[in-house]
Specification:
Layout lengths: L14 E7 L5 E7 L1 H10 L3 E4 L4 E4 L8 E8 L6 E7 L14 E4 L4 E4 L7 H6 L2
Parallel strand pairs: 1-6
Antiparallel strand pairs: 1-2, 3-4, 5-6, 7-8
């Protein structure tokens, strides 16, 4: 049995993919994949996703150069979520942070604290491409 047959895609044909930096264990981002973007990820060793808002495929880093090299691809016990461990080059977040999870909730839900340092100004990265 092929391993992909164990996966359960939602009604839109998508499955959530949690992207984790292999060397640190830090969660970098979450994005959606369909069977084609998952297959392209497996074939290329780079992460490919499906953009629900733009209705198109995209490779992480295609605009910024901040790519993800896949080190391991796993799925959970229910087969409805992927965990992709990567070697991250540069910022994973389109706002210029290493991780998309750069804000922490504080003060009983009343406050927000930045928990990371911005690596790049996204306006400069995308303007130079």
């Amino acid at each position: 049995m092929k391993s992909l047959e164990n996966l359960k895609f939602n009604a839109d044909g998508l499955i959530p993919a949690i992207i984790q930096e292999q060397s640190t264990g830090r969660v970098l981002m979450m994005a959606w994949m369909n069977s084609d973007s998952l297959q392209k990820t497996i074939e290329t060793g780079k992460t490919w996703f499906w953009s629900r808002s733009r209705q198109k495929y995209w490779m992480k880093g295609e605009s910024s150069g901040h790519t993800q090299n896949v080190q391991d691809l796993a799925f959970d016990c229910d087969g409805d979520t992927l965990l992709i461990q990567v070697e991250q080059a540069g910022a994973a977040c389109h706002e210029g942070y290493k991780s998309c999870f750069f804000r922490s909730i504080r003060d009983g839900g009343e406050g927000v604290e930045l928990n990371d340092v911005r690596l790049v100004d996204p306006n400069e990265v995308y303007a130079s491409k």
